[in-house]
Amino acid sequence: MAEFSTSVKDKGDVSIISLKGFLDAHTAPILETNFVELINKNRYKIVVDFNELAYISSAGLGVFMAFIEKIRENNGDIKLASMNDKVYNIFDLLGFPLLYEIFKSEDEAIKKFLEK
């Protein structure tokens, strides 16, 4: 089975989910659990750090679509950061840059939340 792990940390009122490895149908529930736990804690400002993500499948992309509406209903957002070209191309192909802000770094994404 493909290796995948996440870690979650908070910087002020922004939560950062760092992804590592391969996000696919088998590993997507791990990320879903992260989102559910953050929503249950009323943490709706979320940055997802893709720095160590090697691969994402359509099932992995579906996790983002599953939670974005609930998060935005609560005045939050999911901002994406530090994607490698291969992962970005998959997001771009499916039109995600129209739905999500994508940043070069985690710090840039966090700053965007602070501007509001």
Structural descriptors:
globular; 5 helices; five-stranded mixed beta sheet; single chain; 116 residues; alpha/beta; Transcription Regulator spoIIAA
By CATH's scheme, which homologous superfamily of the domain at 1-52 and 65-77 applies?
A: STAS domain
Q: Please give the number of β-strands.
A: 5
Describe the sheet with the most strands: 5 strands, mixed
Residue fraction in strands: 25-35%
Sheet with the most strands: spatial strand order: 1-2-3-4-5
Shape: globular
The whole-angstrom Rg is 13 Å
Order of helices and strands: EEHEHEHHEH
CATH architecture term of the domain at 1-52 and 65-77: 2-Layer Sandwich
Number of helices: 5
Query: What CATH first level of the domain at 1-52 and 65-77 would be assigned?
Result: Alpha Beta
Taking pLDDT < 50 over at least 5 consecutive residues as the criterion, the unreliable ranges are: none
- Classification by helices and strands: alpha/beta
Average pLDDT rating: 95
